[in-house]
Amino acid sequence: MCLERAGAVPLVVDIAVPDGKGDEKFLKALIPNIPRTGSLRLTGYSSVEAVADDLPGFFDSPILNLVSLELQQSVAPAQPFPSNEIHTPPVFSNVRTLKSLHLTQTPIYPALFNIASLVELKLTGYTSPFEFGTFIGLLRSNLDLERVVLDIQFVAGSVKVPRGRIMVPLSRLRHLSITCSKATCSKGLLSYISLPRGAHIEVICTRPDQPAEPSSFLPSPLTPIRELLAPITTIRNQVSPQELHLFGNGSAFTFRTTQSAFGGLLDWALFPTTAVREFHTDVRPHGYLFTGLSEVMKRLPALEVLAISQTKFPVGLLPALTVEPVLCPALKTIAFFDCNIDSDTVKQLGEAIAKRRDSAAARLHRVVIVNTTGTPLDVASIRQLRESVPCVEIRVDDKLPDLS
User: Fold this and answer.
1) Who's near 170: CB < 8 A, 6+ residues apart?
2) Which of 10, 20, 352, 385 has a C-alpha 20 to 30 A away from that of 52?
3) Same domain for 175 and 91
4) What is the pLDDT of residues 43-66, one digit of tens each?
5) How many domains does the chain have?
């Protein structure tokens, strides 16, 4: 058999049959070899007990050299946090070599909190809350973590951010994703973690009745997140689905909610924006009238690229381009993606750019229009635009080209 030929090579075991039902002969041959498993993935079962009943002996032996463990239970456990170590299956009792742990609705046995070797941790699908202090202890024991994905909540009242707290220095962290229904869960967790440069922090709010402002989900004060991103060079602000992306210093921050609109246009103004060079948006507060758009541009003095997508042409853009004193004097590129733009709008845009060229120290160099949703543009309007801008690109594509 292939198991015999494998010799001492660590096994990669992936069982996706509901409750362990499958090739009975093969599974019986596999069970004696479970202790030399290097990677174990078990999905589709209703409970650990069901697997134990269908595959006697499957969980009876400890795995001494297990590196990766993924368990996806299809039904929430009756006891998500077994309190007695005696109920821990032997297979979980010795996981000192474990690098990757991915659990979905699987009981969190006490032995799992003794792990101190993790590089990747993913806990999802839990409706029963974790005790905050115990979870922080798990992070503190695994300082080599590089990727953490959490869809959990914490016991009410256990999330406390006392003064003089000792931060958890996850110096190798590259990705941290927190999905939560309560802002205090995200705020508390991020208040305890020392974030290294290059990390991508993602916060996902799953309750539409929660405040949508990013500040509700972030540490107070915002200093750790600001320092992580400084200087911010790119902002992507999207309304549907609602997302905010900030990029800077080799790091990134993402905020998502299930709501259809942000609480306000300038959620990103919580952060220093004087170094922002690219701003992407599909949000149209007040129809993007002059007052709304000029307020955006005033906060982005170093802006070089303005990209607008999936909207009607923002009427406030034309006067914002020509107002004195000039807003965003470094602006070089304006791009439109899936926008309702017609020939008259293109002519007006060319006239506004020409007027701006006469008064601004720096002139616009490029206009990109991808996938117009209005009437087809006529040749005359494009020709007039090209008289004002050296580079005009009209194209059909599923995304904007590189605008840097």
Assistant:
1) 139, 143, 145, 148, 176, 193, 194, 195, 196
2) 10
3) no
4) 888 877 777 777 777 777 778 888
5) 3
